[in-house]
Each structure stands twice: as structure tokens, then as C-alpha cells.
Design brief:
Elements: H1 8-39, H2 44-57, E1 62-66, H3 68-78, E2 85-89, H4 96-105, H5 111-120, H6 124-131, H7 146-158, H8 161-171, E3 177-180, E4 187-193, E5 198-202, E6 214-220, H9 228-235, E7 239-242, H10 247-255, H11 258-266, E8 271-274, H12 289-300, E9 307-311, E10 337-341, H13 354-384
Parallel strand pairs: 1-2, 1-7, 2-3, 7-8, 8-9, 9-10
Antiparallel strand pairs: 4-5, 4-6
Helix pairs in contact: 3-5, 3-13, 5-6, 7-8, 9-11
Length: about 400
């Protein structure tokens, strides 16, 4: 009921004004509620997280190339220092759940991508537990990782694999992005050096089972096209890191994509190969640190990497009955510079510690950025310095 003598239009104006006032008050109360911990000095953790978030947004643009456990180990540490991370992942995996899905559905193998998503996720513990969960019952589901099925399902929903990766990253709030090195369905093959003849192994999951030395690996079909976004990321990076991980089955398949190798050659960013802390059964038994780089150069030529990060802590010892050995830096080389840092996981000394490794990588690139900025400032000051006339 309207009050006598008061025009209807005025009531409408008053109603709108009161509604707007209530909205303003509500927003004020909400902001006050959110900011009160800072005002009262009770949100040290929240404040620190906000500062860390802004620091990560301004962090270096790092491209990490590889696959398997080694790449996810690096990403898990890097996400604490930068949100500008691009993981470029091999698509040669053909074993386990990934191999089955690849064969039955004709999709790119999701396993390595699953591990990267879990490593970069905000809530890593829960995401890892969910994505790594393997079904133990049912003829069709047994052995499949939930994360693999999630990515494949997302591919069906979005229409393609690369969009599925993008949308999966959004759903799980990952820090960074994950890209395939190629969209081509490729098979990794190897020539193995036997006692009297050269053998051949077909498929990433089979390489290494023979325990014969690997002469070379190659892709079939040969020369697959690089994924354009991966090339752009390499050319725009502040630092490019390959490894750690299996030399021949995780790192090398990416470098065998010609467009990836060419982008590395043309990139002006420092390019670093992260050497494993120990040799690997079936791939690098008997290798030295420099033998790893020599294998890369044998496949894709010299000069792609100008730095190699090596572990400097050789105190932890492996049991005497282990076939694998801790790698010890064995002198400098003229073609690339060694970067030494303690990056070993003391509990599993054949592996990297993710945080130690990330700190070493970020410390290196920040040092390079600082040097570059100093050089720019010096050139700027020199250009602006007044010229003195000699009379």
C-alpha cells in the first residue's frame, strides 16, 4: 500500500536508492570482512601468500622440456617461484594405461601430461592422489589411471587434445601451461649395439629392456611437425631447461622433432640441460656426465645447450650392490658451461630434490636477468653521458 499524497514515481526512486545503498553496504561489509585480518594483523600467512602470488606472476618465463618423473619433479619445484612455466612434453609414451588408450582410441598418450598437471596443480596432494589413482577392478578399467581417463574424456568434450590440456589446466588451477612437442602420432625406435650386430627396438616402453647399449633413437614417422605454441614458447622464454629424466626416452623424443630443435637453436635465452644425478638401467649405464651431452649432440648437433646443470653433492652413497652409480662432474668442456649445485634428494640419492633443483634453476636465470639488466643500464648511461670537447 502506498502512503497518501506520495507520488508513485517517488516511491520507485526511493526503492532504487535503498536497493543501491544496500548493495554498497554489502560490498563494504564483504571487503571489510576480507581485509579485517590484515587490519588486525592476523593474516601473516594470507599476506605472505598474496606476496608470493604476485612474485610468481612476475617470475621468469621458463620452458621445461622432457617427460616422465623427471619433468614433473622439476615442475613441482618451479611452481613455487614462477607462474610463467611452459612444459613441453613428449608424445612417444606407449606403455601401460597410456599405451592402451593410444591403441584403442587413437589419442595422444596422456600419462606424462597427467603427471605434469598433478605437479603444477594448486592443491597438488589431492590432485595427485586423484589423477594417479589406478582402478584395480573391471576388465576395461583395471590398470587405467583416473587422470588419463580425465584427459581423454576432456579431449572428447573439447574436440581435440591440446584444448583438453588447456581446459584441464583451468579446471585444476595449474600454475603454467602444458603443451605437446608435436601432435603427430609418433613411435620411438632405437638401434641397439649387440656383441656382433645392431639390433632394433620399437616403442618407448621396450627400449632398455634388452639392456644393450643404445646407439641412437629416432622417430617414426620421421620429422614430425612441431606444435606451433611450443615453438613460440621456446622463442619467448627467459630460460629453456631440458631434463632431468630418461635421456633417450623422455628428453630425446622432444629434441628429435625438427621444429623444436630449430627453435632451440634460434632462441636467445640460456639453454640448460639438467644432467641426471645417477646413471639409469637400460639407458645410460657406464655414462659420465659429459656422455649425456655427447649423446644429445650426436643426435641433434652441437650448440643447442650452452649450460649443463650438474649435482655437486656426491656425499650420499648408493648400496654397493646397485648397478647404477652417482654421476660425478668430470671436468669442464669448451662448448658449454657447467653449473654446479646441490640438487640431490638425500633420501633417494639417485633422484633430484624438486625444491633444490628449482632453486638452482631459478637462481641461475635470475642471475642472468640481473646481468642483462645491468648491461642495458650501462649502455643507457653511456649513451646519455655528455660528450666533452677537447680544446
Amino acid at each position: 500500500m502506498l502512503a497518501l499524497g506520495v507520488p508513485r514515481g517517488l516511491w520507485i526512486v526511493v526503492g532504487v536508492f535503498v536497493g543501491l545503498l544496500m548493495i554498497v553496504v554489502s560490498i563494504f561489509k564483504l571487503n571489510q570482512s576480507l581485509l579485517s585480518p590484515f587490519i588486525e594483523g592476523k593474516a601473516t600467512d594470507v599476506a605472505n601468500e598474496l606476496l608470493a602470488h604476485h612474485a610468481r606472476k612476475g617470475g621468469p618465463k621458463i620452458v621445461a622440456i622432457g617427460g616422465g618423473t623427471g619433468l614433473s619433479t622439476l615442475l613441482r619445484g618451479l611452481k613455487e617461484f614462477s607462474s610463467n612455466i611452459t612444459a613441453i612434453v613428449t608424445v612417444a609414451d606407449d606403455g601401460g594405461s597410456s599405451g592402451r588408450l593410444r591403441k584403442e582410441l587413437g589419442v595422444l598418450p596422456p600419462g606424462d601430461f597427467r603427471q605434469c598437471i598433478a605437479a603444477l596443480a594448486e592443491d597438488e596432494a589431492l590432485t595427485t592422489a586423484l589423477f594417479q589413482y589406478r582402478f584395480s577392478e573391471g576388465d576395461s578399467l583395471r590398470g587405467h589411471a583416473f587422470g588419463n581417463l580425465f584427459i581423454v574424456a576432456m579431449s572428447g568434450v573439447t574436440g581435440n587434445f591440446e584444448t583438453a590440456l588447456l581446459e584441464s589446466g583451468k579446471v585444476l588451477s595449474i600454475r603454467g601451461r602444458i603443451l605437446p612437442s608435436t601432435l603427430q602420432d609418433v613411435t620411438l625406435c632405437a638401434e641397439l649395439r649387440g656383441e656382433h650386430e645392431v639390433g632394433r627396438s620399437i616403442g618407448e616402453s621396450q627400449i632398455g629392456h634388452s639392456k644393450l647399449p643404445i646407439d641412437r633413437v629416432y622417430l617414426e614417422p620421421d620429422a614430425p611437425p612441431a606444435y606451433p605454441e611450443a615453438v613460440r614458447a621456446i622463442l619467448d622464454a627467459d630460460l629453456i631447461v631440458a631434463g632431468p629424466g630418461s635421456l633417450y626416452t623422455s628428453v630425446m623424443p622432444n629434441l628429435l622433432v625438427p621444429g623444436i630443435a630449430d627453435a632451440l637453436r634460434h632462441s636467445r635465452a640460456p639453454k640448460m640441460y639438467v644432467a641426471n644425478v645417477a646413471t639409469q638401467l637400460g639407458e645410460t649405464i657406464g655414462y659420465s656426465v659429459h656422455d649425456h651431452m655427447a649423446a644429445i649432440e650426436r643426435h641433434v648437433g652441437k650448440g643447442i645447450f650452452n649450460y649443463m646443470l650438474v649435482n655437486s653433492n656426491t656425499t650420499p652413497q648408493l648400496p654397493s650392490d646397485y648397478t647404477i652409480k652417482i654421476l660425478v662432474p668430470d671436468g669442464e668442456r669448451p662448448d658449454y658451461e657447467l653449473v654446479r649445485a646441490d640438487v640431490i634428494d638425500v633420501n633417494k640419492p639417485w633422484r633430484h630434490d624438486s625444491r633444490k633443483l628449482a632453486k638452482a634453476v631459478v637462481g641461475f636465470v635470475e642471475g642472468k636477468r640481473s646481468q642483462s639488466q645491468t648491461a642495458v643500464n650501462r649502455r643507457h648511461l653511456t649513451a646519455e653521458a655528455p660528450r666533452l670537447e677537447v680544446r
